[in-house]
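Format notes (please read before filing issues)

Several people have asked whether sequences and C-alpha cells are stored in separate files. They are not. Every record keeps both together, in the order shown below: the sequence lines, then the C-alpha cell lines. Line labels are part of the format and must not be stripped during preprocessing.
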Amino acid sequence: MLSTAPQSVAQKSRNFFVGLAGTASEILEAQKLRYRVFAEEMGARLPSTTPGVDRDHFDAYCEHLIVRDEECGRIVGTYRILTPENARRIGGYYSDTEFDLTRLQHLRSGLVEVGRSCIDADYRSGAVITLLWSGLARFMTQGGYDHLMGCASIGMADGGHNAANVYRALEKHLSSPEYRVFPRHALPVERLATQSPVEIPPLLKGYMRAGAMVCGAPAWDPDFNTADLLLLLSMTQVDSRYARHFVDRQG
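Then the structure lines:
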C-alpha cells in the first residue's frame, strides 16, 4: 500500500536515522526485528506464515517507523503506526481485537494507533526509544492528529502477578468513565494482585510521564502471553516537560 503519511518525519541524530520505512526491504527488516524480540526473546506465538518474520494483516495498512544505525546499516528500533484513514479501510484498529472501544468512537477521526514497539537487544540504552518517540511526535504534528492510542504490554512470565500489581499502581492514571474501554479477555486482577514490589516496564513509564491515561482494566493476550493496558494520549494535553524533550527535537 502506498504511503500517504508525511515523509518529513525523517531526521538524523548522530549516527542514527529515524523516519518512515520507504521500501519493502526496510519493512521486512523491521518485521524480522519484531520476530527476534517477540518470538525468540519473549516466546510469543506469532501468526506469520513466513519463518523469522512477524507479519499480520494489519501490516499492509500501517506505516512503519524505524530507527537505523547508519554505521552498520541495521534497523535497531521500530514502531507500527495505523492512521484513522487506514483503520477505516481495514475495518478497525488492532486494539479492537482486544478491547471494546465503543466509548472512543467519537475520537476515531483523529485517532492514531501505535504498536509492535521493539528495540534490538544491543540498543536498549534509551537513545533509540527517544528517537522513536521524537519520530512519533513529528508524525502526529505533521499529520494534524489529535490522539495517540496503543496497548502497553506487561510480561506474564510470573503468571500475571506483576501485571496485576502494575494496574493497581496505575489506577490513579485511570481515564474518566467516558473514555473507558473493556477487555474482551480480562486479566483476573483481583485474584493475581499481591503485595510484591511493582516493576513497571520502561515504555509504560514513558507513556505515564507524557500524560497518557489508562483506559481501563488489562486484557490478556494469549499469543504474546502479556497483559495489555489500553493507553490514550491527547496531543493537546501532553505534559509540557515531555513535549519540550520530544516535540521540540523536530527542528
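For reference, the curators noted about this record: The domain at 79-250 is CATH 3.40.630 (Aminopeptidase). The mean pLDDT is 89.
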